[in-house]
Amino acid sequence: MYFSPNKIKRWITGAAPITLSLKTVLAVYFVPIAVLPTILLSYYVVQVFEDNTKEGLARRAQSERDAIVSEMEAVEGELFSNLRILANSPRVLAALSSRNTSSFKSVFPLTRSTVSIRVFTPDGKFLWGKQPEGAAPRVDYLGHDAMRKVKVKGEVIDRYLTPQDRGVVTVMRALVRDKRQLYGIIEQEHIFGAAQLNELRHRRAVDVVVLSRDLSAVAASFALGPDILKSLTSIALRPQDVKMREPSLINLGDARYAAFVYDFPSTLERNRQWGYVAVFLSMTSSDATILKLKTAMIYLATLLILVAALLIFVFSNRLVKPIELLVLAMKRIRTGRIEQIPPMESTYEIEYLVHAFNDMARNVSAAKRTLEMKLEELGRANLEIKNAQTQLVQSAKMVSLGQIVAGVAHELNNPIGFIYSNMHHLSDYVGKIRELVGLYRDIK
């Protein structure tokens, strides 16, 4: 089918519709029917895979968060148990009662490289301390609030966040006393900072960021830029729903990560949420798998579309070809050329139409020949009628002329007869008038 520029222009403006062939119409209808399900199926498969991937990432992130919290709680529980043992140890009691600081080093051993130990007097003054290399210096006294809490409760544990050079700091304090008096206060501080988070990153293949509740302090296993911190802040401030949460995708250089932010509970106070923990899971393998799946689905969809298009073309060509022959034959009939369609074997109703058309063509040919003979006879009869009509017209003209002449003669005879019959009376009247005129003159 040829689309001329004028046809296209009239079709666009709505002035005249474009007549489409049946083959084109079948392609327009059946190609989308074959293509759309393939595209929708491919899209559905990719979406299902992405959803399953996100669900798997969410489950893994929840598991990693639980493992990290459990690991930190296990360390803190161990340290807190050691602190209780030290607070109740007779050696510690004897060392504090004698204030023999030279014996403190053997009495208070460092069990971990991330743990600091400090000893204070009952009034909060610094007495002795031991801390790992590179640790930040501490003040040489306990604040009033810290003193009041530990004296009221006997033992306390606090957790807070410092800037990234230190990280998560857990401070444990316990009183050293007997029934008679208070000898001192032992403070044990555990640091879970960037080094520990980085070690966790290599051990569990996961990046971790810990935020305080007011989002002011951060500890991370990698350098945190302002854009990433802003993204984490916006995630943390969302309504928390761990079971039904979509990951937030964050780009770190060339890598892409799925970030999940969870509440970070306190060790001793389960109802108190003191911070957030953000778990970063690499999307590199997932993105590569999704890309491969999308590529495979594109190839598969393209193959199915080509196969569907080929089948539609073959089917439509087989179905439409007899119809095209019928249309061509009908057009020839309009121009006076009556031809029969060659018989074709088909299981469709087209075969019946072809036979019916051939019968119609034969009948039309016979009717045409009969009609031509009738037309010749009518032509001769028409010629005879025309000759007779000419003679009748001449006769009618002569009759009409005679009637006209008779009418004219009649019309002429009537006034002539009237004048002729009144000439005598007119002569008498004229004579009498003359006599009267003469008498009138004589009298005058």
Order of helices and strands: HHHHEEHEEEHEEHEEEHH
- How much helix is in the residues? 55-70%
Major β-sheet profile: 5 strands, antiparallel
Strands ordered across the widest β-sheet: 2-1-5-4-3
Structural class: alpha+beta
Question: Strand tally, please?
Answer: 10
Number of helices: 9
Proportion of strand residues: 15-25%
* Overall body shape: elongated
Give the termini separation.
118 Å
Radius of gyration: 60 Å
Spans where pLDDT lies below 50 across 5 or more residues = 1-5, 11-16, 239-244
**Mean pLDDT level:** 77
Structure description:
With 444 residues, this protein is α+β, with helices and mostly antiparallel strands. Helix content is 60%, strand content 17%. It is built from nine helices and ten strands. It has helices spanning 5-13, 22-87, 90-98, 104-107, 144-153, 194-204, 226-236, 284-334, 350-443; strands at 115-120, 126-130, 155-161, 168-177, 182-192, 207-212, 218-220, 248-252, 255-265, 273-282. The chain has a five-stranded antiparallel beta sheet, sandwiched between helices. The chain has a five-stranded antiparallel beta sheet with strand order 7-6-10-9-8, with helices on both faces. Strand 6 (207-212) and strand 7 form a beta hairpin. The longest helix has 94 residues, at 350-443. The two termini are 118 Å apart. Residues 1-5, 11-16 and 239-244 have low confidence and may be disordered.
